[in-house]
Amino acid sequence: MYAFEYEAASSVDAAAGAAKGGAKVLAGGQTLLPSMKLRLSDPGKVVDLGQIASLKGIKRDGNAITIGAMTCHADVAASSEVKSAIPALADLASHIGDRQVRARGTVGGSIANNDPAACYPSAVLALGATVHTNLRQIKADDFFTGMYSTALGDGEIVTAVSFPIPKKAAYAKFKQPASRFAMVGVFVAQFDSGARVAVTGARSCVYRESAMEKALSASFTSAAAEAVAVSAEDMNADIHASAAYRANLVKVQTSRAVAAAR
Ligand SMILES: Cc1cc2nc3c(=O)[nH]c(=O)nc-3n(C[C@H](O)[C@H](O)[C@H](O)COP(=O)(O)OP(=O)(O)OC[C@H]3O[C@@H](n4cnc5c(N)ncnc54)[C@H](O)[C@@H]3O)c2cc1C
């Protein structure tokens, strides 16, 4: 690890001011600290968000659930509000990493980091969530811009995420055995306006599977999902799985998610 300056911010404005010019904000540290330890990241200054109470918490907001950016995965998994309104989101959070990771890792850190195999980005995209920052509101379709990159500007801080409540939804993750990240994870959501399907782990960034959305908007059934041809183009190929294997998994996991949706 390279040497760095540490500051615990007392407010979002103070954190945003301190986090400019290459400094990094610290949330649960589950990704930032390992990458600093491996000298893959050298921020020079770390601004801790842990003391800012307004960044934590879960509330029902009309027809949406709003989750504070510093809310840890374990709290989302255990939340009665989330379990009753969007059980698929509580289920997703309950299968992230292991107990230790869930006790520290946060929703804000997960989406700001935008790991290609992370779980939360698929929920944000499939549910058409709104990402609140200290400066603005960003629609899910505009937030994830590429591998480990998002629409966030320098020093911009995610403060909360609002998830619209669907008619039904589910997340089906085929996990990478060692890390439990998604080899392929599919989040499906059904709204009055139609179905949304987001896939993580399969490409360099989370994406919406439009052919699946068209089929499931017409018929929200596993049979409809299984009838869709999924192209292996742009799919990841690595020691864990070939592109063709992942393309097939997208279909299998979508079908499983539709069957499990509630
Ligand atoms: C062993 C292990 C297994 C894991 N398995 C999974 C898994 O199965 N599925 C999964 O989805 N994830 C998994 N993770 C990742 C985990 O979910 C992390 O919690 C998450 O990636 C980062 O969240 P964090 O709160 O720890 O953020 P940090 O590590 O503190 O920060 C991550 C990055 O986001 C930035 N950041 C943090 N908060 C904000 C904010 N509010 N606004 C702007 N930028 C911010 C930081 O500056 C940093 O660049 C795993 C991690 C480990 C170590």
- Low-pLDDT stretches: none
| Tally of separate helices | 12
Helix content: 25-40%
Q: State the separation between the terminal residues, measured CA to CA.
A: 45 Å
What percentage of the residues does DSSP assign to strands (E)? 25-35%
Indicate the CATH architecture of the largest domain. 2-Layer Sandwich
Task: Provide the structure class.
Answer: alpha+beta
Named CATH topology of the largest domain: Uridine Diphospho-n-acetylenolpyruvylglucosamine Reductase, domain 3
Rg, please?
18 Å
| Order of neighbouring strands in the sheet with most strands | 4-5-10-6-7
Principal-axis shape equals globular
CATH secondary-structure class of the largest domain? Alpha Beta
The mean pLDDT is 97
Number of strands: 14
The sequence of SSEs as H and E is EHEHEEEHHHHHHEEHEEEEEEEHHH
Number of domains: 3
Bound molecules: flavin-adenine dinucleotide
Largest sheet: 5 strands, antiparallel
Furnish the topology, listing elements before pairings:
Layout: E1 5-8, H1 12-18, E2 24-26, H2 32-37, E3 45-48, E4 58-61, E5 64-68, H3 73-78, H4 80-85, H5 87-94, H6 99-104, H7 107-113, H8 120-126, E6 130-133, E7 137-139, H9 140-143, E8 144-146, E9 149-150, E10 158-164, E11 168-175, E12 182-191, E13 194-200, E14 207-208, H10 210-218, H11 222-226, H12 243-260
Parallel strand pairs: 1-3, 2-3
Antiparallel strand pairs: 4-5, 5-10, 6-7, 6-10, 8-9, 11-12, 12-13, 13-14
